[in-house]
Amino acid sequence: xxxxxxxxxxxxxxxxxxxxxxxxxxxxxxxxxxxxxxxxxxxxxxxxxxxxxxxxxxxxxxxxxxxxxxxxxxxxxxxxxxxxxxxxxxxxxxxxxxxxxxxxxxxxxxxxxxxxxxxxxxxxxxxxxxxxxxxxxxxxxxxxxxxxxxxxxxxxxxxxxxxxxxxxxxxxxxxxxxxxxxxxxxxxxxxxxxxxxxxxxxxxxxxxxxxxxxxxxxxxxxxxxxxxxxxxxxxxxxxxxxxxxxxxxxxxxxxxxxxxxxxxxxxxxxxxxxxxxxxxxxxxxxxxxxxxxxxxxxxxxxxxxxxxxxxxxxxxxxxxx
Length: 321
Description:
The structure is a single chain. By secondary structure, the protein is of the alpha/beta class. It has 2 domains: 20-123 and 248-316, Bordetella uptake gene, domain 1 (D-Maltodextrin-Binding Protein, domain 2, 3-Layer(aba) Sandwich); 126-239, D-Maltodextrin-Binding Protein, domain 2 (3-Layer(aba) Sandwich), CATH 3.40.190.10. It is 45% helix and 18% strand. The chain contains 11 helices and 11 strands. The strands form 2 sheets. Strands 2-1-3-10-4-11 form a 6-stranded mixed β-sheet, sandwiched between helices. Strands 7-6-8-5-9 form a 5-stranded mixed β-sheet, sandwiched between helices. The longest helix has 24 residues, at 2-25.
């Protein structure tokens, strides 16, 4: 019996040492950080900030790779099927939870197919219009939409994206009808807003902030319950629609079977990166609040976000696709 116990202990010890060695050896080549949206948008900008910071922490280059389309689902599917060795990871957005709530089925499992590493940041959305628009406030939008249902258009970064459901939730809460115009992300919605092709943009501060500060577009409302530090002059939509708020998030994950020690090292690198004054400043400029978590904490958070958006979809009467 003692001999058997020693043998079991030796096997367990060798397994622990092997996992520890794996974590120390990882990464052995550049790490690909995938996101699912267009160039210059929120996910792309945050990916580049984090890739630069993680490159320093991990001692290997972290390269950003965009796979836009289907509200981020193409990127999620790609990473869910990638080799689970820690060299392909993904920057997930709140749209990951929205897709899980809105689609009847996906080509990946939104929770089970990922090894969640850490949250990165939280942030609100902005509803804005061009500077020359007669719409001066959220109240003006509601009044105009009631007079002519469906005439006003709003952008998102894709059908089923968080921006899309934010616009639908706003319309439903206000009791109005708006027409959704989906894009693939990036800065194209802003360009079309300024040129007058669309009436409203629903997007992040990363996309809208600089133009609002420059006076090129007008921020009508923000989805945080209080004014947000990056855009203190844009009033909360809750001032007009009490209780209205839409928080969103960014996080990093890997394929599900990625070894635990690799995920733990990635988690530590993310947490240390978010403590950097330079990273805090860069993310603050993009209008997001740094916020790290444990791997289990992120998994629980994402599952909770899926449930929250399932409730929103049901209340908005949106048909699952």
